[in-house]
Design a protein that fits this description.
Blueprint: H1 2-33, H2 38-67, H3 72-88
């Protein structure tokens, strides 16, 4: 059971990076060029919302482990991973990238 939840956690972290790349980063690039585009702004917001939901899902897996009777030290990595990713992927205003 614990192996299944660890595999799910790795899949969730992978999904976080895919969502960030497909929704947030592409939308941020388009928002720099066209800041008044409401559709792109909605994609950007949706990307952050999905990223946060996936980070919370990671922490929720730790809570599932606790409810199943596992000790705190085994579920702590899920809690920490979820909250660290929440802070790491904090929303940032789209800014132009410097060109060299």
């Amino acid at each position: 059971m614990k192996f299944t939840l660890k595999t799910a956690a790795v899949a969730i972290v992978g999904m976080i990076f895919v969502v960030r790349r497909t929704l947030v980063l592409r939308s941020a690039e388009n928002l720099v060029a066209h800041p008044d585009d409401s559709l792109t702004l909605n994609h950007w917001k949706t990307g952050y919302f999905a990223t946060y939901a996936l980070c919370e899902a990671l922490a929720l897996l730790g809570m599932v482990l606790r409810f199943l009777g596992f000790p705190l030290h085994q579920s702590l990595s899920f809690y920490l991973g979820g909250f660290v990713l929440l802070f790491f992927f904090a929303p940032r205003e789209p800014a132009p990238t410097p060109t060299t």
